């Protein structure tokens, strides 16, 4: 189970429930007399003596509501325990059993779950009779199938993981698999489910009382009190208020505990500290891009809402027909840089730049014509298996931009889709367009992704780690397709990769990024020849197997770079690489940010190599 | 919560069949339905056997002499071997004969025929309304992602979702029928009479459902394929309706099946509040006077109905999400 | 057999109409209206239970009585004060062994065929065989062959002779269960119970539309003139159509009445207060509320040896521990305090409060302290609130009370069939007649096929009961009844509590009579 991160709603709700539980313990001890005493004033309205009036026998409604807390909570807990116990046993049991038992068990759960729980409860109440025990059994067993179904869902994801499969292959008995491997791994979501079930059981129990088959006098729970209160709602509304509020508040609190737990256990829960967005001062245009550059990026920063710069004043350009590589470790800001160009930054991040243009299209403007964006920039994402919509056929996804933004209709759509798949060397394209993504292989999907990016005829393709998720053999094919497109159609490509080997072979020019900054711009030829200046680029090259080993017989062990890049919020005032740099200068590197001059941003390089 | 996977997983438990994906799928589902039917028939038969006490005594009345009880027992065929009784019961079912009410001597089949349409009417309308309301609301809240909208959504849905249907129903009557006089307070006379019962069912269910949708939508919206779709610069409507919705529905309908079943149960309570002459109210009535044939018949038919609805959900899922049909996990 | 069927019927009656609303033994019929049968508009009436049987002989609940009384008219009616009024019969004579009734001229069934004396005899014979209540109509000693029913089509007379003297024949014939069914209905077999049979009606209305569990629509028969001639029938036209709607929940009925979806609805709970004060005849401008006793509550004892109820001192102490006012308040304080086991609308009922034992908690405490009492009651009326009160009051008097609030069927089995372990019960009596309600305190025990669930051994009471039911002279009858009740009350075999009333809230412009304290829908008239 993951560590619980306490949050305010969770703590509040737990405290509230604790208070109610305390009431359940204390109230019957203190108020029992008052709750059963006949005051003589039947159905009295609200008064100082009876805050919620009295019932038909002249008993104090408030006292009865408070005393009923115990029975209500006991019944709700017991029924929840039955539902959970039976449900968890069934739901996880099927996953530690053999295949046949499992299929049968899952089918049985399906059958049971499709039966309305309240009707099932009514049947059980008929068999067992009425009263607290019967109600608990009825609602508990009635709720078990739903619990089993949801538990089976959770268990399914865990049961198919390696460590469980392995345990079973090693002959660990089912019970141990269940207790040691399955349950601990779904304990978190189960807790959430439990609190939700608690709220549902509470309402269901009161429903039984409403129908007259729940708790019978002289016993009383909130449902029974509410039922008799509702009967006199129009003449003495106060009588219904107490139990109604009690049921709703307890249910809401239990629900909030569920929400709070879910949030506390969710690893993706974002820290929602939202400081006012600070617009970073955008420096004056400084990068001198050629006038005919396709993409011009000048002083681009990508910032978090709290002002932290994930990308820090990056400038570069892409010429028409040029393949530019952006290389760096993960977290270096290369993808964010590319996504800023594509205007696809994740929510919460904002891009600011002195200049950010594609041809004459201002990509930094508040609003950009969606049609021009969609047709001007094609995007190839990293994971082709996740980047296609699993519910839609290939054709629709390939040609959506054509249809939505370029008004292509009818048979033309089909023709273009088939043609595009042919261009990326997919066999039987006519069949593939009718298929769903899950029917294609990874390599085919990525080529189809490139085809989709190409279809509107973009000037620029942004390819974000297009080969990372693919097998090595398939990687080469996909890169081939990209370079082929570039050659034949003159489409510019902005290729993002953490693999300096890949960018070295495919690109014309390479930008090396480190900790949100560009540290070096180098031609592919120089890169392949090892003619790089920045100590970080040199270290990257040293850590990369392919270029080092080309043709060389002596295989030096791969160098690793000691240390880690700084966190964006803790980026030093000076060179971000200084702390890991073997040649850092004591004087300036730590204090002064090196500027990108002559395609390299390093104080030390310029000292050692005064003239290039 | 891994809400998405199990239905797909269970649906996909079989191996590829020569019938093609739809054929194999239908065979599996119809076989499942048959299993449900058999289970229900056996279950409802055993239910009456399980009830403590003697049905013959209940029918004969509390003051009946032992001879009276024996005569009733014989009339009801309760003195014959269990298997013969079951064969009679099952045989009767095949002929559409569900027995007759102890209390009113009406044939149970006719009782169900009279009552079921009313329940079906509000249940189906409610399911439709819940889906039409909960999905857009949940999706909108997830898409907006604003903290304020989120917390007020959580508060409202949490509160309404935790309020029993009959309380909501009573409040609706108080407001819209008594105070404002806009809608009928009860009965099944006009189309307007549908509004309040359906609203009483829909409000809490929508809140529960909308929360599920929001949670699932948050997951769907974070998927890579949604970024791909955003890369195509689609209008929000197209983005959410075409790309998010089908994926959302898989998970939503899986859990929605549970809510659907819950709705059928909820009609029992709501029918009682609104004097809606549905089957739920009848079954409770029969339970209270121990009119076993009616209980038995209603329980059987409601179960079959629920199973059919479930099958319908599966079919819709298979249409929406090709992976369900192919039997691969949706995760 | 007939004996046990009677009790079975009575128990079923209790079971079904406790949750419901109207009186059970009430005579049915309508006034001798000069209405020409064309009638006024539609009157919409709400009930909280569906019809369980359309067979008048098998009726077991408020809605059953309401519907069958409109479809099947009895020969005579019983009016306030015990006087009989003409129904289908225009005149009659009665002695303890022979009753002769003469039918009105020109009677027809709803299919237009004439209703003859021999058809009426067939209907009465069926009533004798099928109805649980027939036992007390013709007398326990006159079962089967011992009662002969003959008719003469020429003179239109029906003659009933009993071998043993019995003085309740006319009272029995005035009951809803004795409503006359035409040949079509008698030939229909079980179908008579399942729905209105075409052409079977003898009453003012015939079924136009039936939707079980939801609503029934009745149409006034053209040219119908033989309404029962009660004294208090309101002026006005009978409704052309009666629409009876079912809603389980009294609040729902009240909502419908308030929003104009209903014109008349009965309430046993506090919802009646929404339509004006529930005292008889009061109104709030739009509605009139009329009350009638529904349940007569009394405390009954298990007097078998070893039970606390076998001791007269304990029975008296129980009476001293209870406050009738407090009990009445449990049901909203609108009930009538009882001076016998039935209410004061019943003919010959004792109204002498000196026969009752007043509340004296101190005295009660001296006797009841530490006495273990198993109280079992039915939860059908207000969830058993009355039982809770009695239990609390006895506890307050020092008794060790074990309260069982059973559902009605279980209560009937445990207490009235004496198959349970019980000492004391709060009996919800449906019947408003001395003979019927009093049958529980004499004769054999349930195990021997009798009604005497508490094994009461009160010979004085039994003697006077027999005397009262064997004469037809009103004065002699009432004198005997007075002595019978005195014997029962002074030995604390029964401790009268209070009635739970049904309050009929009616929209202005509609009125009806309640002869002997029971709703009679065939007296309903559209007045405004």
TrEMBL record, chain A:
<comment type="similarity">
    <text>Belongs to the ABC transporter superfamily.</text>
</comment>
<dbReference type="InterPro" id="IPR027417">
    <property type="entry name" value="P-loop_NTPase"/>
</dbReference>
<dbReference type="InterPro" id="IPR000515">
    <property type="entry name" value="MetI-like"/>
</dbReference>
<dbReference type="Pfam" id="PF00528">
    <property type="entry name" value="BPD_transp_1"/>
</dbReference>
<dbReference type="InterPro" id="IPR035906">
    <property type="entry name" value="MetI-like_sf"/>
</dbReference>
<dbReference type="InterPro" id="IPR050388">
    <property type="entry name" value="ABC_Ni/Peptide_Import"/>
</dbReference>
<comment type="similarity">
    <text>Belongs to the binding-protein-dependent transport system permease family.</text>
</comment>
<protein>
    <submittedName>
        <fullName>Dipeptide/oligopeptide/nickel ABC transporter permease/ATP-binding protein</fullName>
    </submittedName>
</protein>
<keyword id="KW-0812">Transmembrane</keyword>
<feature type="transmembrane region" description="Helical">
    <location>
        <begin position="108"/>
        <end position="128"/>
    </location>
</feature>
<keyword id="KW-0067">ATP-binding</keyword>
<dbReference type="InterPro" id="IPR003593">
    <property type="entry name" value="AAA+_ATPase"/>
</dbReference>
<keyword id="KW-0813">Transport</keyword>
<keyword id="KW-0547">Nucleotide-binding</keyword>
<keyword id="KW-1003">Cell membrane</keyword>
Automatic annotation (TrEMBL), chain B:
<keyword id="KW-0472">Membrane</keyword>
<protein>
    <submittedName>
        <fullName>ABC transporter permease</fullName>
    </submittedName>
</protein>
<keyword id="KW-0813">Transport</keyword>
<feature type="transmembrane region" description="Helical">
    <location>
        <begin position="122"/>
        <end position="143"/>
    </location>
</feature>
<feature type="transmembrane region" description="Helical">
    <location>
        <begin position="30"/>
        <end position="51"/>
    </location>
</feature>
<feature type="transmembrane region" description="Helical">
    <location>
        <begin position="294"/>
        <end position="320"/>
    </location>
</feature>
<dbReference type="InterPro" id="IPR035906">
    <property type="entry name" value="MetI-like_sf"/>
</dbReference>
<feature type="transmembrane region" description="Helical">
    <location>
        <begin position="190"/>
        <end position="213"/>
    </location>
</feature>
<dbReference type="InterPro" id="IPR045621">
    <property type="entry name" value="BPD_transp_1_N"/>
</dbReference>
<feature type="transmembrane region" description="Helical">
    <location>
        <begin position="248"/>
        <end position="274"/>
    </location>
</feature>
<keyword id="KW-1133">Transmembrane helix</keyword>
<dbReference type="Pfam" id="PF19300">
    <property type="entry name" value="BPD_transp_1_N"/>
</dbReference>
<dbReference type="Pfam" id="PF00528">
    <property type="entry name" value="BPD_transp_1"/>
</dbReference>
<comment type="similarity">
    <text>Belongs to the binding-protein-dependent transport system permease family.</text>
</comment>
<feature type="domain" description="ABC transmembrane type-1">
    <location>
        <begin position="116"/>
        <end position="317"/>
    </location>
</feature>
UniProtKB/TrEMBL annotation, chain C:
<dbReference type="InterPro" id="IPR030678">
    <property type="entry name" value="Peptide/Ni-bd"/>
</dbReference>
<feature type="domain" description="Solute-binding protein family 5">
    <location>
        <begin position="84"/>
        <end position="427"/>
    </location>
</feature>
<dbReference type="InterPro" id="IPR000914">
    <property type="entry name" value="SBP_5_dom"/>
</dbReference>
<keyword id="KW-0732">Signal</keyword>
<protein>
    <submittedName>
        <fullName>ABC transporter substrate-binding protein</fullName>
    </submittedName>
</protein>
<dbReference type="Pfam" id="PF00496">
    <property type="entry name" value="SBP_bac_5"/>
</dbReference>
<feature type="signal peptide">
    <location>
        <begin position="1"/>
        <end position="22"/>
    </location>
</feature>
<dbReference type="InterPro" id="IPR039424">
    <property type="entry name" value="SBP_5"/>
</dbReference>
């Amino acid at each position: 189970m993951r560590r619980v991160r306490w949050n305010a709603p969770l703590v509040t709700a737990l405290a509230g429930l604790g208070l109610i539980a305390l009431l359940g313990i204390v109230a019957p001890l203190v108020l029992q007399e008052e709750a059963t005493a006949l005051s003589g004033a039947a159905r009295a309205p609200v008064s100082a003596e009876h805050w919620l009036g009295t019932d038909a026998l002249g008993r104090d409604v408030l006292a009865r509501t408070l005393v009923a807390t115990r029975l209500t909570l006991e019944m709700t807990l017991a029924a929840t325990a039955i539902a959970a116990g039976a449900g968890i046993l069934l739901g996880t049991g099927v996953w530690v059993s053999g295949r046949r038992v499992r299929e049968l068990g899952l089918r049985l759960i399906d059958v049971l779950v499709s039966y309305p729980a309240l009707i099932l409860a009514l049947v059980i109440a008929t068999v067992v009779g009425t009263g607290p025990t019967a109600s608990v059994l009825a609602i508990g067993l009635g709720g078990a199938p739903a619990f089993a179904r949801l538990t089976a869902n959770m268990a399914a994801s865990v049961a198919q993981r390696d460590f469980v499969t392995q345990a079973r292959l090693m002959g660990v008995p089912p019970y141990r698999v269940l207790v040691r491997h399955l349950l601990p791994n779904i304990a978190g979501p189960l807790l959430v489910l439990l609190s939700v079930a608690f709220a549902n059981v509470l309402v269901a129990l009161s429903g039984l009382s409403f129908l007259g088959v729940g708790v019978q006098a002289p016993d009383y729970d909130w449902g029974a009190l509410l039922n008799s209160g509702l009967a006199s709602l129009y003449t003495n509304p106060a009588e219904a208020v107490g139990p109604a509020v009690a049921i709703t508040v307890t249910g809401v609190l239990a629900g909030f505990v569920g929400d709070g737990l879910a949030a506390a256990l969710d690893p993706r829960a974002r820290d929602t500290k939202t400081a006012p967005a600070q617009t970073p001062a955008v420096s004056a245009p400084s990068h001198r891009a050629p006038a005919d550059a396709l993409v011009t990026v000048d002083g681009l920063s990508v910032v978090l809402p709290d002002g932290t710069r994930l990308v820090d004043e990056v400038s570069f350009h892409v010429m028409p027909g040029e393949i530019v590589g952006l290389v760096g470790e993960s977290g270096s800001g290369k993808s964010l840089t590319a996504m800023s160009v594509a205007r696809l930054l994740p929510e919460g991040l904002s891009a600011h730049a002195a200049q950010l243009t594609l041809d004459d299209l201002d990509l930094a403007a508040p609003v950009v014509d969606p049609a021009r964006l969609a047709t001007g920039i094609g995007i190839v994402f990293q994971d082709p298996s996740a980047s296609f919509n699993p519910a839609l056929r290939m054709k629709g996804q390939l040609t959506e931009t054509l249809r939505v933004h370029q008004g292509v209709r009818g048979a033309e759509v089909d023709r273009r889709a088939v043609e595009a798949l042919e261009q990326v060397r997919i066999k039987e394209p006519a069949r593939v367009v009718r298929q769903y993504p899950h029917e294609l292989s990874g390599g085919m999907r990525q080529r189809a992704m490139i085809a989709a990016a190409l279809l509107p005829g973009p000037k620029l393709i942004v390819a974000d780690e297009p080969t990372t998720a693919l097998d090595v053999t398939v990687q080469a094919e996909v890169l081939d397709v990209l370079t082929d497109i570039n050659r034949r159609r003159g489409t510019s490509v902005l290729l993002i990769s953490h693999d300096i080997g890949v960018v070295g072979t495919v690109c014309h020019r390479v930008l090396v990024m480190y900790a949100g900054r560009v540290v070096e711009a180098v031609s592919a030829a120089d890169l392949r020849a090892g003619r790089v200046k920045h100590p970080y680029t040199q270290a990257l090259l040293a850590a990369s197997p392919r270029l080092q080993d080309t043709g060389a017989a002596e295989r030096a062990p791969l160098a690793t770079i000691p240390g880690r890049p700084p966190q964006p919020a803790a980026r030093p005032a000076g060179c971000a690489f200084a702390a890991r740099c073997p040649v850092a200068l004591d004087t300036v590197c730590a204090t002064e940010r090196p500027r990108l001059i002559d395609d390299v941003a390093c104080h030390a390089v310029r000292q050692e190599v005064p003239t290039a | 919560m891994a809400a998405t996977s199990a239905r797909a997983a269970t649906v996909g438990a079989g191996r590829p069949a020569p019938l093609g994906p739809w054929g194999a799928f239908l065979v599996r589902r119809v076989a499942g339905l048959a299993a449900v039917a058999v289970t229900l028939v056996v279950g409802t038969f055993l239910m009456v056997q399980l009830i403590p006490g003697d049905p013959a005594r209940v029918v004969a009345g509390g003051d009946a002499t032992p001879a009276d009880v024996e005569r009733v027992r014989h009339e009801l065929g309760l003195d014959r071997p269990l298997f013969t009784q079951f064969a009679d019961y099952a045989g009767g079912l095949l002929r559409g004969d569900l027995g007759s009410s102890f209390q009113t001597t009406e044939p149970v089949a006719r009782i169900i025929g009279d009552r079921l349409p009313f329940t079906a009417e509000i249940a189906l309308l409610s399911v439709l309304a819940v889906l039409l309301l909960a999905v857009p609301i949940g999706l909108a809240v997830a898409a907006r992602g604003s903290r304020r909208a989120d917390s007020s959504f959580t508060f409202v849905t949490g509160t309404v979702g935790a309020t029993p249907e009959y309380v909501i129903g009573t409040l609706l009557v108080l407001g819209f029928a008594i105070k404002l006089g806009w809608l009928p307070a009860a009965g099944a006379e006009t189309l307007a009479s549908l509004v309040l019962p359906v609203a009483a069912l829909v409000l809490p269910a929508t809140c529960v459902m909308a929360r599920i949708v929001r949670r699932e939508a948050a997951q769907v919206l974070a998927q890579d394929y949604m970024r791909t779709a955003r890369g195509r610069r689609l209008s929000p409507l197209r983005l959410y309706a075409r790309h998010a919705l089908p994926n959302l529905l898989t998970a939503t309908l899986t859990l929605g099946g549970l809510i659907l079943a819950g709705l059928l149960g909820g009609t029992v309570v709501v029918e009682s509040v609104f004097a809606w002459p549905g089957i739920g109210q009848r079954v409770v009535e029969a339970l209270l006077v121990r009119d076993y044939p009616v209980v038995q018949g209603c329980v059987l038919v409601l179960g079959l109905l629920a199973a059919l609805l479930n099958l319908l959900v599966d079919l819709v899922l298979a249409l929406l999400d090709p992976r369900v049909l192919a039997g691969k996990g949706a995760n | 057999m007939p004996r046990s069927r009677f009790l079975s019927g009575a128990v079923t009656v209790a079971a079904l109409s406790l949750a419901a609303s109207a009186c059970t033994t009430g005579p049915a019929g309508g006034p001798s209206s000069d209405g020409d049968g064309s009638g006024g508009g539609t009157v919409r009436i709400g009930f909280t239970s569906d019809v369980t049987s359309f067979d008048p002989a098998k009726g077991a609940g408020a809605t059953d009585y309401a519907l069958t009384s409109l479809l099947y008219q009895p020969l005579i009616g019983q009016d306030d004060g015990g006087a009989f009024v003409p129904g289908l019969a225009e005149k009659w004579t009665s002695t303890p062994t022979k009753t002769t009734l003469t039918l009105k001229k020109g009677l027809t069934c709803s299919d237009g065929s004439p209703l003859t004396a021999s058809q009426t005899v067939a209907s009465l014979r069926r009533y004798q065989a099928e109805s649980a209540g027939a036992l007390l109509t013709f007398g326990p000693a006159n079962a089967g062959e011992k009662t002969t029913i003959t008719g003469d089509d020429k003179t239109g007379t029906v003659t009933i002779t009993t071998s043993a003297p019995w003085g309740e024949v006319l009272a029995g014939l005035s009951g809803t269960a004795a409503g006359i069914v035409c040949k079509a209905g008698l030939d229909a077999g079980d179908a008579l119970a399942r729905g209105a049979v075409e052409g079977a009606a003898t009453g003012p209305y015939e079924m136009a539309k039936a939707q079980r569990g939801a609503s029934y629509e009745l149409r006034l028969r053209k040219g119908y003139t033989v309404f029962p001639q009660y004294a208090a029938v309101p002026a006005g036209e009978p409704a052309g159509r009666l629409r009876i709607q079912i809603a389980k929940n009294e609040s729902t009925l009240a909502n419908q009445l308030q929003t104009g979806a209903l014109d008349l609805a009965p309430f046993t709970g506090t919802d009646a207060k929404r339509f004006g004060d529930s005292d008889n005849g009061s109104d709030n401008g739009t509605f009139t509320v009329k009350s009638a006793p529904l349940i007569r509550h009394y405390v009954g004892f298990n007097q078998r040896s070893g039970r606390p109820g076998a001791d007269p001192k304990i029975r008296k102490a129980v009476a001293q521990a209870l406050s009738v006012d407090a009990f009445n308040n449990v049901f909203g304080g609108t009930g009538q305090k009882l001076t016998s086991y039935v209410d004061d609308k019943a003919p010959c009922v004792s109204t002498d409060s000196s026969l009752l034992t007043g509340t004296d908690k101190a005295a009660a405490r001296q006797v009841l302290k530490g006495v273990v009492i198993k109280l079992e009651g039915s939860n059908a009326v207000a969830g058993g609130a009355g039982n809770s009160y009695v239990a609390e009051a006895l506890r307050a008097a020092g008794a060790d009370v074990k309260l069982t609030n059973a559902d009605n069927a279980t209560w009937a089995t445990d207490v009235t069939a004496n198959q349970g372990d019980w000492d004391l019960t709060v009996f919800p009596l449906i019947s408003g007649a001395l003979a019927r309600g009093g049958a529980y305190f004499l004769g054999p025990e349930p195990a021997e096929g009798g009604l005497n669930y508490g094994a009461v051994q009160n010979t004085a009471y039994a003697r006077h009961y027999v005397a009262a039911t064997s004469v037809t002279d009103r004065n002699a009858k009432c004198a005997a009844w007075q002595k019978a009740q005195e014997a029962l009350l002074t030995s604390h075999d029964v401790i009268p509590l209070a009635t739970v009333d049904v309050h009929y809230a009616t929209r202005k412009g509609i009125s009806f009579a309640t002869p002997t304290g029971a709703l009679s829908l065939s007296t309903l008239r559209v007045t405004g």
